[in-house]
Amino acid sequence: MADPKTYTATCSAPVNIAVIKYWGKRDTSLILPTNDSLSVTLDQDHLRSVTTASASAAFEAGDRLWLNGIEEQIKDSKRLLACIQECRKVRKSREEADASLAKMSDLPLHICSENNFPTAAGLASSASGFAALVATLASLYSLQPTLSTSDLSRIARQGSGSACRSLFGGFVAWQSGTSPDGSDSLAVEVAPKSHWPSLQALICVVSDAKKGTPSTAGMQQSVATSPLLQHRIKNVVPGRMVEMGKAVQAKDFDLFAEVTMNDSNNFHACALDTSPPIFYMNDTSRAIVQLIEEYNRSSIEETGKRRVAYTYDAGPNAVLYAEEKEVPTVLALVRHYFPNADFDDTFNLLGAGANASHRGAQ
Ligand code: DP6
């Protein structure tokens, strides 16, 4: 008898860094956020996850998944199960509607995913990882154009909230939505990478130690205990989303920097306002904040505008944004003031965005 047919697809997805942060879920199972967020998708060449999925009747042990070469138990992860089941379900209904389609939705899957950056560096590996998983399954099952990129983002969201934003390149908003079933909680493109190609991101790896409080646990601690987070959700983020949208559309770096830094500081204030308090930034992170604030203060005196923006996720590493012409000065500045710090891992990410990963599907 001939070997059973094996279907295979490979896709990659980049990391994204939020400039308006997602922090808090209103539904932890469906991963529905308490507020809208907005991010910049980084360059595919530097920080990305690459995933290959194969489906075959020959895989007798059922679905299996390897992450950076180590097997993970799919059945132990509700998030992995949700993404795989959702993609299968759509394929199955298409097979039922179109008899010419190969019957592959019930075939066991083998999935391998690799990051081209150290997972320990505290960079957003779950965002690129789940985005790459969903993009790959969508390619394997030919789910597009039946499903749009925003539809796929709704599936990736159930793997990790921030993953929904990595399906698009450039500037991306995650609309929190209001529906209890999550049908309107999805990512949309605010502007493509080509809109503002001179915007650059620099990642300063302050520490590659694993973070103390993972974001998933930390944000729900904040939801349960922080009055400041409630204020942020109701009174701070809605206005900031509007301002950030304007900054991106107008390529207004000064406004982009102001809103980005204010939002990072507000998010870390909410972490501190949590009981017990969560400290993500360390002394080096705070010293970078002071350095950039000082640099911007002299720049405002000179030109009336800011030149650099910092933002920090749930860890001590700084992401700096600047216009391309400023990058050499910013790199020199950081290296001058932190000659002994571990900044060897400063990535200079040329290009603020990346193409949607699944468009490169094979
Ligand atoms: C601080 O997306 O990692 O990076 O949805 O529980 O997987 P889960 O959380 P995750 O949280 C990211 C938080 C953040 C801000 C952001 O990316 O918007």
TrEMBL record:
Keyword Disulfide bond attributed: no
EC number of this enzyme: 4.1.1.33
Occurrences of domain Diphosphomevalonate decarboxylase-like N-terminal (ranges): 13-187
Record-level Gene Ontology MF annotations: ATP binding; diphosphomevalonate decarboxylase activity
Organism superkingdom: Eukaryota
Family affiliation: Belongs to the diphosphomevalonate decarboxylase family.
Name this polypeptide is given: Diphosphomevalonate decarboxylase
Taxonomic lineage of the native organism: Eukaryota, Fungi, Dikarya, Basidiomycota, Ustilaginomycotina
Boundaries of the shown chain within the full protein: 1 to 362 of 435
